[in-house]
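Design request, tokens follow.
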């Protein structure tokens, strides 16, 4: 277990979780904001994208009241991403996170807020992050409201940052800065 917050648990991704990722990432409701409805995943694609031993991404499964409901990943920003976002190299520890709740029955219940808040706390305390960043699409208003509730603030617009459903979409660079 990576961490627990009441009814919410986050655990490391295991090989046996590949079927969950394939289920969630073939659901058009989930794909609307994560990967795109024109980009569904099957088991082979999940295994390639999420189980690469050379990848520095730490994948995790979100459990709520004992039910696997989604995915979250965290990673330390590399030099190229720091440069893209406008952060100097080697000045502070910066982590990025991405997540989705793959079970729509668990949407709009405040779980995302608990999840993001808990992950930020974990990264600050356990990984000594000075900054946590995300780059959600501008049109993903529900996610942006969640992130703002968790203390993230918009830093800058990233024009045409993400290829999504055949178009390059604008994203916000948002950040949570550790309070000193």
């Amino acid at each position: 277990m990576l961490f627990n917050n009441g009814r919410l648990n986050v655990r490391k991704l295991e090989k046996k979780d590949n079927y969950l990722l394939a289920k969630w990432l073939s659901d058009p409701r989930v794909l609307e904001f994560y990967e795109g409805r024109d980009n569904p995943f099957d088991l082979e694609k999940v295994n390639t994208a999420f189980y690469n031993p050379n990848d520095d991404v730490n994948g995790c499964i979100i459990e709520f009241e004992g039910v696997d409901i989604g995915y979250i990943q965290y990673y330390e920003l590399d030099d190229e991403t720091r440069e893209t976002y406008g952060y100097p190299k080697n000045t502070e520890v910066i982590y990025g996170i991405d997540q989705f709740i793959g079970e729509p029955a668990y949407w709009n219940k405040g779980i995302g807020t608990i999840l993001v808040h808990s992950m930020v706390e974990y990264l600050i305390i356990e990984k000594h992050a000075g900054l946590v960043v995300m780059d959600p699409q501008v049109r993903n208003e529900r996610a942006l409201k969640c992130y703002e509730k968790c203390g993230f603030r918009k830093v800058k617009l990233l024009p045409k940052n993400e290829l999504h459903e055949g178009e390059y979409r604008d994203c916000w660079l948002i950040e949570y800065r550790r309070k000193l």
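Comment from the thread starter after seeing the answer: thanks! The radius of gyration is 16 Å.
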